[in-house]
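Posted in: Protein Modeling Q&A

I'm a second-year student putting together a small comparison for a lab meeting, and my supervisor asked me to include a predicted structure for Extracellular solute-binding protein. I've never done this before, so apologies if this is the wrong subforum. The sequence is pasted below exactly as I got it from our records. If anyone can share the structure token output, I'd also love a short note on what stands out.
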Amino acid sequence: MKKLVLVVLLSMLLVFAFGKTKITFWGFMLDDESSAKILGEFMKENPDIEVEYVQLAWSNGFDKIVTSIAANNAPDVVELGNTWVANFASQDAILKMDNYASKVKDKYFGWDSVAYNDHYWALPWLLGTRALFFNLDLFEKAGLDPNNPPETWEELYDAAQKIDSLGDDIYGFGMCAGENFSPWQQWFLPAVWGNEASILSKDMKKSLLYSTKVIETAKFYQALSKYSLKTKQADLAKAFGEGKLGMYVSGAWDISGIESNYPNILFDVALLPKPNKWSGYHASFAGAEVLAVTKQAKNKEAALKLIEYLLRSDVAMQVTKLVPSVFPSVVGADKDPWFEDHPMHQVFYEQNKYAKPAPSHPQWFKIQQYLTEAIEKIVLENGDVENTLRYYNLKIQQLLNH
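Accepted answer (user: helix_wrangler)
Welcome! Here is the predicted structure, written out as tokens:
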């Protein structure tokens, strides 16, 4: 009898083991330890699903995903940077998520990061953005209230001018220059968005760089540049840590960097200023890790169940605590007690609500190069704003026409 029971139990275990649904998940944010913990908990909650995780590197992860799709061996779930969504969506390599998104849209923010061609192609998971860093001591020395950082462009300009006048080696504001992406990411293009404008039309067929509100933004930016240190992002962080820079725009990764390398600096962060009190908004640049189901996924229901789990506030917060420069897309995630001990990080969580990604255009890589050139002509060479924008507007339009 005991032998019979044992045989039956073994048979049940074999059926259970071989009856599991197996899915593969390729990602970047989870390492071996965190993936074992987080995915292990998922498999405990879903004993009928087995997840195989493959960690990708940013240096070659994109190419590996492309290769796997070409070989008809794509993972079920894949983590993508939001700038990649248009590429995979235009190749019809990932599933449209419109039906699911319509049911949960109010529960998350960051939907612009997964949109392309009027459809949603993934779900926003972890969001990263930029905010305004400001030096408390320099604010006080300049007669400014450190408890009331600038909320508008005029207030920012006024603060930068006063801090800049403190000494020859002190600068009011920091502007990125001499790099490919940062000159428009922090903070020119977000300032355009905050001014309720864009550099591309909604259908992405027309360049709007030479339009009234973009010109207005560029003229403000040029005026602000007179009181700004203009150099690479890493050099701005260094100058800020050394107490030579009043304000600059950066990501949450600089919180720990400044605290570790410059422990004597007193600083805080705030939402990026908007054009004025009665119009515009606190726009910033959105980076995001998003989760997609590939078109080749063999187990789409199980894949979606895994994504639902990873998006949960308690799960996403585990990643935030490991990498405190990205934050859950879940509305209300900042109620986690962790934010009480990390008030500056909570500002970034709030800033994510106003963040936008770069336009999802296949030619964006070239467009942003032209945009960087235009910004640097305006702030480094003091070039005529309207002539500069007119010239690069034509360059971008030529790209859009092909």
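A couple of things worth pointing out for your meeting: The chain has a mean pLDDT of 93. The chain is about 45% helix and 15% strand.
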